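Hi R.,

Here's the chain you asked about this morning:
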Amino acid sequence: MHRLLTKIPNVERFFYVLLAFIPVSLFFGFFTNNLTLIFITSVVAIIPLARILGFATEQLAMQSNPAISGLLSATFGNIVELMIAIMALRQGLLRIVEASIVGSIIGNLLLLIGLSIFIGGLRHKHQKFNKEAIGVSSTMLIIMIVALSIPSVYSFINPTTTHIPVLSNAVVVVMALIYIAGLFFSLKTHRDLFDASDEIRRTQRAPTLKKSMASLILLIATLIVALESSFLVKGVEHAAVNIGLTETFIGVVIIAIITNIAEKSVAIHFALENHLDVSLEIGLSSAIQIALFVVPILVLVSQIFGFGFYLVFSLFEIVAILFSVMIVNHLSSDGKCNWLEGAQMMAVYLIIAIAFFFV
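And here is the predicted structure, written out as C-alpha cells:
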C-alpha cells in the first residue's frame, strides 16, 4: 500500500488520511449502537475508497478510447451506488433509493460535467469536444427522461391504478435493451466516432500501475465499499433525524456526491489535460448507466424479493432531471465550451440542491 500511495500526487494525499476512518467505522458498526456515528464514519470512509477506485480506473482507462474510459469509470462508480440502493431496498428505504438515483443523475450531468468544464476552462481558454459522439449520448438522455417520466405521469393521472408494476417492468426491459444497443453502437459498429485514444496516448503521462494490479485494487476497494455501504444504510434514518436533514436531501446530495467522487476526480483530471471528450463521456455515461442499467437491475431485484420499487418518482424529481438534461443538451450542442458554461451548470445544480433541502 505504501508503494501505491507514493505514486499518487501529494495534493491527493488528503484522501488517504481519511482511510483511518475505515477501522473507526468498522468499530462503530460492529461494536456500538450509535447509528449517527456509524453513518458519519462510513460516509467519510467511502470518500478515500471512492478515490482509490477512481485512481485504479484511471490507470485502466489511460490507453482506452473515451467510450471505454467513460464506461469503466461509470461502472465502478455506479457499483457503489447499486450496492447502497440494494441494501436500502432490503430495509424498505424506498425514499433513499429514489433520491439517490435522482441525485446521481443530476450530479453527473450538472456537477461532474460542470466542474470539469469550469476547472478545465480555467487552464484552457477554449475547449473542444466531439459533438457527434456527445450527440449520441444526448439522445440517450432524452430516452432516459421518457422512460423515467412516463410511468410516473401515468401514476399521477391514475393514482388508484393497479397497472404500475406491469408498466414499470415493461419499461425497464426497453431501457435495458436500448442501453445494450448503445454500448454495441459506441464500442463496436461506430467505434470510430468515439475513438480519440491516439491523441490521448501522445499527451498523457505513463501509467504507474499494471492492468492486473489496477484490477486487483478495484476488486478489493469495491468489496470494502460494500461493507461500508451496509453501515451507511444502517444508520441513515437515525442520522437524518439527529442531523436535521431529510432522507430525500441525504439521498439526492450527500449519498450521490459520495458515491460519485471517483468519477468526478477522473473527469476533472482529463479536463485539465484538455481531453474534455473523456470528461463529458464519463458524466454522460454514468448518468445514462444509472437510468438505463442500474434502475432496471433495482426493479428486477425488487420484483424477485418483493421490495416494492417501481419507476414512480415525484413530480419535483422528474422536473429536476428534465432541467438537467435540457441544460446539458443546450451547452453541448456547439462542440466547444468555456469556464463560464461550467459555472452555469454548477449554478443550476446548486439551485436544485437547495430546493431539495426543503422537499
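One quick note: The chain has one domain: 2-204+212-357.

Cheers,
M.
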